[in-house]
Hints:
There is one protein chain. The chain has one domain (5-81): Glutaredoxin (3-Layer(aba) Sandwich). It contains four helices and four strands. It has helices at 14-25, 45-50, 70-76, 78-81; strands spanning 5-9, 31-34, 60-63, 66-69. Strands 2-1-3-4 form a four-stranded mixed beta sheet. The chain is globular, with a radius of gyration of 12 Å. It is α+β, with helices and mostly antiparallel strands.
Amino acid sequence: MTHKFKIYGKENCINCEKIKQICIDNKKDYLYFTLDTDFKREDYKFFWESVDLVNRQYPILEYNGILISYKLFIKEYLNEFLAIK
């Protein structure tokens, strides 16, 4: 099975918990990766450098092969992800 949704989060992150709960509540399959356990901050330095300061919030989400910050995902892709027309 190919996971179309990946969450790169960190410990004690309220946004990370919120997006996992959204997935669970809506029966969306996802993979969760934890900072300093499954990946290092340096692994995504290129990503954070491309995101404006206002939108730099964990988790980093991979949706349809695109990396996006939590805040941008909620603003731009949540309805599409949940199949809301």
